[in-house]
C-alpha cells in the first residue's frame, strides 16, 4: 500500500517504508495516513516478517507540520501510528538520517530499534514551542536514558548529535556504511523478536536526582508552563504501566498547543522563515567572503571578531591604538581559554580559531580583506574619516560595513567613492552571543552587497534582519519609544523601581531603568544634546535623566544612576535622591503625581512599542511587521513567550488596538505621532 508521501517497497521479506514529503519530510496528516496504511500491510501480509522506516531525500521526519498545531488535529494522529507499530507483531527498525526531531523522534521511539547515519541529530524540541511531546516522547525517552536525563532533554529541547545520542542510549547503533542496507540487516536479525520500549521500565534513580533535574530545568526554562508540564509528564514514566503516562501527556499536549504562549512561539517560528525571504534579492548571488577585517578592538570589535572566528572565517583585527589592540586581542584569547577550561571547546579547535586571527596596526593590510566591519567610536566625523581611509585602501569589490547604532549610514557611505559597497551590520552586545544582527540598507547599497551581508550574518549563526537606514534602525528606534513612555510614567507618578518591576513581571529580562543604568546614561544624554537644536519645542520632554547626568549619576559605572549601587551587590537600590529629582521635575512641569498600577505601566510601555512599529512599517524601514518582534526578542530581552509587540497587538484585535492607540496618544501628549494599526495586522505566513 503506497500513497504520494509514503511508499512501501520490498526487500525480500522485509518491508521498507519510505517517507517522501519534501523538503523536510514533515509529519503531516497525509504522511501519518500513509504510515498507518503501510504498517497495516506489514501486519497483515504474511510474506513480510519485519519492516524498516526510512526517509527519502535529506532527512527522516525533521518535525511536525506546525500549522496543524493551531487547528483541530486530523486523524490518524501520531499516537495511533505508534500504537499500530507496537501492535503489528513484527519488528520495526527506524533508520534515521538528517534530523529526527519532535514527532519524528517519537515515531523512532515507538519502533523496536533505532539506527542512524553519522551526522544525524535527534531530539524533542517541543518545549521550545510552548508544548510538550504528544506521542509518547515523555514516556519512552525516560525508559532509555532515565528520568533525570529525560527531564533535561525534554525541557531544554536540545538537539543531540548522533554520537552523543548513541552514548546516551537514544540510538542503538550508528551506521558505518549504507544506512538502508544496515537497517535491513538489523531488521533481518530481529525477525521473530520484539524489543519495544513499552515493555521496559525506566532505569532507577533517586528522589534527589529527580528533584535536582527538575529544579535545574525549571530554572533554565524560567518555569514556563510547558517546562512544568514536561516535568510532570516525564515523572509518570516511573510507573511500569505506560498507559496512564501516555494519557496524561496527551491531555497536557492538547491543552498547551492552543495556549497563547504556544501560538506566540509558532508565530516567531514562521516570522523567522518569512523574514529570511527577500523577493527583491531573489537570484542575487552574494560575494565570496573569506577574510573579514574588524576595525576597532573595543567591546564590539572583539565580540565581532570572536563571532567570525567561531564561524570559521579568517579575521584581521586592526586598531589605531597599540594598547587597545593588545587589550582586544587578549580579551579574545581569554574567552577561548575560558571555553577550553570549561570543556566547551577542544584544545585543537581553540588553537585553530586563535590561529585564524591576526592583529595589526597597519591599515595597508586591510587591502587583503573581502569585508571590513568598522566598530570604532560612535562619532560621525570619526566614522567618515575612517571610511574615506578605507575607501583608499580596500580592494575594488570589497564590502565596507559599519556597526553604527544610530548614525546615518548614507552620510558614512558618502565619505567613500563607492557607496554601493557600503552597508550597516549592526551587532548587539555581547556580539559573540547575541543572535540579532540588523543588516542596514543604505540608499545606494547594491543588492549583492545586501545579499552578502545577509549570507555572512547567517554563517555567523545570527538572525539577520533587513532594515532601512533610519535613526536607530528598527531596534533602537522601538526601544527609544518604549523608554520615552517609561519616562512619562515616572513623570506622572510611578518610580523607576515600580516600572522595572512591572515590566520584569511581564517577562523582560531587565526593566528599562536598570538597563539604562547598565549601559550608561551618558550615551542617551549625548544623543539628546545633539538633537536639542532640532527638537520640537512643544513636544513633551522629560528632563529627569538630564538632571541625573548633571549630578554625575551616569549609571552603574559611576555607582549611581536611577538606582544606587553598592560594591559587590548584584542589583541597584532605590535611591531617595532620585525620588527628589523626580518630584522636583514634576513640580517644575506642573504635573500632579497620580498612582499608576502595573497593568497601566505594562500596557503603555507595550503600546509605545506597537505604535513605533506601525510608524516603521509605514516608512518602509521594517519590511515585515513580525520583524519587529524578532528584533525585540533577540536583541532587547522582550519575553519570547509573549511573541513580541506585534503579536501582542494582534491578540488585542483591531478595534481594541485602535482605541488603545488613541488613548496612548492622549496620555503621551504633545509630540506623539500616532501610527496606523492596519499595517501591523497583515500576517506574513
Ligand atoms: P569601544 O570604545 O569599546 O571601542 C572602540 C575602539 O575603536 C577603541 O578600541 C578605539 O581605539 C578604536 N578606534 C577608534 N578610532 C579608531 C580608528 N580611527 N581606527 C581604528 N580604531 C579606532 O566602543 P564599542 O562599544 O565597541 O562601540 C564601537 C561601535 O559599535 C560604535 O559605533 C557603537 O555605537 C557600536 N555599537 C556598540 C554597542 C555596545 O553595546 N557597546 C552595541 C552596538 C553597536
What would you note in describing this structure?
- It is a single chain.
- The protein is of the alpha/beta class and 685 residues long.
- It has 3 domains: 253 residues, 2-enoyl-CoA Hydratase, Chain A, domain 1 (Alpha-Beta Complex), CATH 3.90.226.10; 181 residues, NAD(P)-binding Rossmann-like Domain (Rossmann fold), CATH 3.40.50.720; 206 residues, Orthogonal Bundle (N-(1-d-carboxylethyl)-l-norvaline Dehydrogenase, domain 2).
- Helices cover 48% and strands 11% of the residues.
- The protein has 28 helices and 17 strands.
- The strands form 3 sheets. An 8-stranded mixed beta sheet has the order 12-11-10-13-14-15-16-17, with helices on both faces. It has a 6-stranded mixed beta sheet with strand order 1-2-3-4-6-9, sandwiched between helices. A 3-stranded mixed beta sheet has the order 5-7-8.
- β1 and β2 form a beta hairpin.
- The longest helix is centred in the C-terminal third of the chain and has 22 residues.
- The mean pLDDT is 95.
Amino acid at each position: 500500500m503506497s500513497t504520494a508521501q509514503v511508499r512501501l517497497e520490498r526487500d525480500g521479506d522485509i518491508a521498507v517504508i519510505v517517507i517522501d514529503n519534501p523538503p523536510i519530510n514533515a509529519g503531516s496528516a497525509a504522511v501519518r495516513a500513509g504510515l498507518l496504511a503501510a504498517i497495516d500491510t506489514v501486519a497483515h501480509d504474511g510474506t513480510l516478517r519485519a519492516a524498516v522506516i526510512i526517509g527519502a531525500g535529506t532527512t527522516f521526519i525533521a518535525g511536525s507540520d506546525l500549522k496543524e498545531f493551531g487547528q483541530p488535529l486530523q486523524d490518524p494522529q501520531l499516537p495511533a501510528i505508534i500504537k499500530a507499530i507496537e501492535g503489528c507483531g513484527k519488528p520495526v527498525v527506524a533508520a534515521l538520517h538528517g534530523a529526527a526531531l519532535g514527532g519524528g523522534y517519537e515515531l523512532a521511539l515507538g519502533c523496536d530499534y533505532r539506527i542512524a547515519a553519522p551526522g544525524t541529530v535527534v531530539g524533542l524540541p517541543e518545549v521550545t514551542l510552548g508544548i510538550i511531546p504528544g506521542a509518547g516522547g515523555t514516556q519512552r525517552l525516560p525508559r532509555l536514558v532515565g528520568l533525570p536525563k529525560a527531564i533535561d532533554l525534554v525541557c531544554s529541547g536540545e538537539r543531540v548529535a548522533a554520537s552523543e545520542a548513541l552514548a546516551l542510549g537514544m540510538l542503538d547503533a550508528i551506521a558505518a556504511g549504507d544506512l538502508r542496507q544496515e537497517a535491513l540487516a538489523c531488521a533481518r536479525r530481529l525477525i521473530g523478536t520484539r524489543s519495544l520500549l513499552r515493555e521496559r521500565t525506566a532505569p532507577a534513580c533517586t528522589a534527589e536526582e529527580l528533584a535536582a533535574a527538575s529544579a535545574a530545568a525549571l530554572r533554565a526554562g524560567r518555569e514556563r508552563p510547558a517546562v512544568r508540564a514536561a516535568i510532570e509528564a516525564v515523572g509518570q514514566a516511573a510507573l511500569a504501566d505506560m498507559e496512564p503516562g501516555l494519557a496524561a501527556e496527551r491531555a497536557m499536549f492538547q491543552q498547551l498547543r492552543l495556549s497563547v504562549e504556544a501560538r506566540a512561539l509558532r508565530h516567531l517560528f514562521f516570522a523567522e522563515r518569512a523574514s529570511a525571504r527577500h523577493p527583491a534579492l531573489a537570484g542575487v548571488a552574494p560575494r565570496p567572503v573569506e577574510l573579514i577585517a574588524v576595525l576597532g578592538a573595543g567591546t564590539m570589535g572583539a565580540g565581532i571578531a570572536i563571532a567570525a572566528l567561531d564561524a570559521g572565517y579568517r579575521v584581521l583585527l586592526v586598531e589605531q591604538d597599540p594598547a587597545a589592540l593588545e587589550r582586544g586581542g587578549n580579551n579574545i584569547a581569554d574567552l577561548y581559554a575560558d571555553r577550553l577550561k570549561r570543556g566547551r571547546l577542544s584544545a585543537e579547535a581553540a588553537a585553530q580559531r586563535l590561529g585564524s586571527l591576526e592583529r595589526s596596526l597597519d591599515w595597508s593590510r586591510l587591502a587583503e580583506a573581502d569585508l571590513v566591519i568598522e566598530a570604532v567610536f560612535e562619532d560621525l566625523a570619526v566614522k567618515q574619516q575612517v571610511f574615506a581611509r578605507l575607501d583608499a585602501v580596500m580592494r575594488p569589490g570589497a564590502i565596507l560595513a559599519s556597526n553604527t547604532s544610530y548614525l546615518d549610514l548614507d552620510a558614512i557611505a558618502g565619505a567613500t567613492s563607492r557607496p554601493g559597497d557600503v552597508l550597516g551590520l549592526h551587532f548587539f552586545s555581547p556580539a559573540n552571543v547575541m543572535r540579532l544582527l540588523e543588516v542596514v540598507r543604505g540608499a545606494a547599497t547594491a543588492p549583492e552587497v545586501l545579499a552578502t551581508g545577509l549570507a555572512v550574518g547567517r554563517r555567523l549563526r545570527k538572525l539577520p534582519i533587513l532594515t532601512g537606514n533610519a535613526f536607530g534602525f528598527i531596534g533602537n528606534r522601538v526601544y527609544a519609544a518604549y523608554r520615552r513612555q517609561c519616562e512619562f510614567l515616572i513623570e506622572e507618578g510611578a518610580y523607576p523601581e515600580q516600572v522595572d518591576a512591572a515590566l520584569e513581571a511581564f517577562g523582560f529580562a531587565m526593566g528599562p531603568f536598570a538597563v539604562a543604568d547598565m549601559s550608561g546614561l551618558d550615551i542617551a544624554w549625548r544623543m539628546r544634546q545633539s538633537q536639542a537644536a532640532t527638537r520640537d519645542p512643544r513636544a513633551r520632554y522629560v528632563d529627569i535623566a538630564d538632571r541625573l547626568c548633571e549630578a554625575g549619576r551616569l549609571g552603574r559605572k559611576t555607582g549611581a544612576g536611577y538606582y544606587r549601587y553598592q560594591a559587590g551587590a548584584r542589583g541597584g537600590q532605590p535611591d531617595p535622591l532620585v525620588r527628589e529629582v523626580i518630584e522636583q521635575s514634576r513640580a517644575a512641569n506642573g504635573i500632579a503625581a497620580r498612582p499608576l498600577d502595573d497593568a497601566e505601566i505594562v500596557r503603555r510601555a507595550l503600546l509605545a512599542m506597537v505604535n513605533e512599529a506601525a510608524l516603521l512599517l509605514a516608512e518602509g524601514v521594517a519590511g515585515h511587521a513580525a520583524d519587529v518582534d524578532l528584533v525585540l526578542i533577540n536583541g532587547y530581552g522582550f519575553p519570547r513567550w509573549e511573541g513580541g509587540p506585534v503579536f501582542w497587538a494582534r491578540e488585542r484585535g483591531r478595534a481594541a488596538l485602535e482605541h488603545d492607540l488613541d488613548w496612548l496618544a492622549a496620555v503621551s501628549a504633545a509630540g506623539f505621532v500616532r501610527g496606523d494599526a492596519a499595517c501591523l495586522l497583515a500576517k506574513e505566513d
